[in-house]
């Protein structure tokens, strides 16, 4: 065992290493089988929901991944829009690669006007449909669409029909609290971001680069 | 109500709009109070854990946010590294802004060599410590560090001590399954990404731009 290892206090002995290697070999078998079974290439419909932090940011991480693979990306933000976010400022640097549309006016509890929220959501969906019929776009982020569906600003069946009609290899990520069950049913990959704790509770304000 | 709204089948009537507005007004009060209470600026320690998709991608979304706000970012990938990812290819475009370190050799069940995994993790931590003592770096991603802690490749108390000693305004995101309770206790914001479903189960292979 190297000095470096001891210095940082890692736990290690020969028995542990052997057991670890045996366990990893079994794990490799399981993982290999799973991967071998998942062979089909297809556009994936992802939904991120729940009360925890990470829904929109995970979608924007996928934007970075997609750009790294040379794909073109579309983003429609349904609710956010009152203040310019870090993600907007950053991805607008690449107008050839990212088509970025901020269609909201802040969270609905800030606007307090249902008619206006509905109209804004309809306009945003029209923009989303343009992206959903463009097969040069590899990944689309529909940020906070779940909230627009939760408050019935949009009809969930129409939204699902439009999503199903998209190009076969196009990926779509839908984010936000309150994802309707019909959308979860239609999706391929769904993650519920569970709040374990949040810095707000410790009195820390929303920090640029973290929350926006 | 506009024709556009009716065309997309949104549910709306005057009573609904009134109830909605009253509800949103109450919600605004609650949210405003919470935000007013969270006033302190501080570097945030975030942990993303759980079995669902979105742990690393949410960290990389925060990288995009931070870059949008003009911050410098450091990334250390503890486990991944066997294949070049989209996030690596993309963020390496900005060497002045992002210091990107891939220190792993793939998942541990691929390597099956504990000694080597421990050594790699120690080297990765040494790199992380350089970033954690550099106050020009606003956000650090320690990708899959949780896995290195889970397998005791690193000592959790030493890791927490080093995290606590970082510059006051530096944000750190730690990702990966199996976050140890001590790290969750030390963190400000913790999200557990819960697997609701995954495209693998439907036979869809890991897609570039989504999983890597």
From TrEMBL, chains A, B:
The gene is cobO. SUPFAM superfamilies: P-loop containing nucleoside triphosphate hydrolases (SSF52540). Its main location: cytoplasm. It is an enzyme of class 2 (transferase). Its EC number is 2.5.1.17. Coiled coil: none annotated. It is found in: Cytoplasm. InterPro entries: CblAdoTrfase_CobA, Co_AT_N_dom, P-loop_NTPase. One of its GO terms (molecular function) is ATP binding. Residues 14-35 form the Cob(I)alamin adenosyltransferase N-terminal domain. Signal peptide: none annotated. Pfam families: Co_AT_N, CobA_CobO_BtuR. Residues 1-21 are annotated as: Disordered. It comes from Oxalicibacterium flavum. The lineage of its organism: Bacteria, Pseudomonadati, Pseudomonadota, Betaproteobacteria, Burkholderiales. GO terms for biological process: cobalamin biosynthetic process; porphyrin-containing compound biosynthetic process. This is Corrinoid adenosyltransferase. It catalyses: 2 cob(II)yrinate a,c diamide + reduced [electron-transfer flavoprotein] + 2 ATP = 2 adenosylcob(III)yrinate a,c-diamide + 2 triphosphate + oxidized [electron-transfer flavoprotein] + 3 H(+); 2 cob(II)alamin + reduced [electron-transfer flavoprotein] + 2 ATP = 2 adenosylcob(III)alamin + 2 triphosphate + oxidized [electron-transfer flavoprotein] + 3 H(+). Required for both de novo synthesis of the corrin ring for the assimilation of exogenous corrinoids. Participates in the adenosylation of a variety of incomplete and complete corrinoids. Keywords: ATP-binding, Cobalamin biosynthesis, Cytoplasm, Nucleotide-binding, Porphyrin biosynthesis, Transferase. Pathway: Cofactor biosynthesis; adenosylcobalamin biosynthesis; adenosylcobalamin from cob(II)yrinate a,c-diamide: step 2/7. GO terms for cellular component: cytoplasm.
